[in-house]
Inverse folding.
């Protein structure tokens, strides 16, 4: 698989995930959020231009480089191809969990990640609301993980498809039937679990950092229960809810300025 095919599959998967999540938001809404926020779509557009254009297939390039140079665990250990694909999905989701948790602990990283949390409504468009700086800062870790793991390119694309869809789904304004929710949350992150992560209280956004698997939160004592039936106040006390697009882009730097001043 080349970088062009990688980008094409990733884009098609993203479009399918958008259709699925918006359908579920209409069929079974939690709050009944009707519209995607313009500022969220603006940030997504900037990220698509800045990072999607320059590095949309970087994970594919990193995987191919590791394979050519026989670098990374999965290029040395002899596994069946499907075991390597499953291992890649599990390992890269764990890396994402760890990185997300670090974003809440290191003040420098939180300045960027708070842009995501400052959304006072919780819906699929929150899932694309990231400061470009946060994504740029995460790239070395994400690409380094692909190389160190020796992740096969098929594993990387399967991960990108699952992770991209899960990211939109867990931010969805979606209620699940109680029995299905209880069954899913044993292994996977549900919208209700991630909604708790976006709660206003510090004790709430200190839980549920996972995106695909909820097992990392259970294993590392960051799991916080939540169900579709509970109502949670979303957002951050420290950041105004209605910040403009430019205000959100400036947010990490304006706080530095005010401190220096
Ligand atoms: Zn977070």
């Amino acid at each position: 698989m080349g970088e062009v095919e990688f980008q094409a599959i990733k884009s098609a998967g993203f479009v399918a995930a958008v259709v699925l999540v918006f359908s579920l938001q209409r069929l079974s809404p939690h709050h009944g959020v009707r519209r995607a926020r313009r500022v969220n779509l603006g940030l997504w557009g900037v990220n698509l231009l800045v990072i999607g254009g320059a590095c949309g297939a970087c994970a594919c390039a990193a995987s191919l480089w590791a394979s050519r140079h026989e670098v990374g665990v999965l290029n040395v250990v002899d596994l069946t191809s499907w075991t390597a694909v499953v291992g890649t999905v599990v390992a890269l989701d764990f890396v994402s969990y760890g990185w997300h948790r670090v974003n809440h602990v290191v003040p420098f990283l939180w300045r960027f990640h708070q842009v995501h949390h400052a959304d006072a409504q919780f819906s699929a468009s929150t899932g694309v609301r990231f400061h470009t700086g946060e994504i740029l800062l995460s790239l070395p870790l994400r690409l380094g993980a692909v190389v160190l793991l020796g992740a096969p390119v098929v594993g990387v694309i399967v991960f990108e498809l699952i992770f991209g869809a899960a990211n939109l789904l867990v931010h969805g304004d979606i209620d699940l039937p109680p029995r299905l929710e209880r069954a899913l949350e044993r292994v996977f992150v549900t919208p209700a679990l991630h909604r708790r992560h976006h709660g206003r209280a510090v004790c709430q956004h200190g839980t549920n950092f996972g995106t695909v698997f909820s097992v990392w939160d259970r294993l590392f004592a960051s799991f916080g229960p939540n169900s579709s039936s509970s109502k949670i106040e979303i957002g951050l006390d420290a950041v105004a809810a209605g910040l403009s697009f430019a205000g959100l882009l400036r947010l990490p730097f304006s706080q530095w300025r005010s401190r220096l001043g």
User: Anything to note?
Assistant: The chain has a mean pLDDT of 92. Residues 100, 104, 113, 117, 197 surround zinc ion (CB under 6 Å). The chain is about 65% helix and 0% strand.
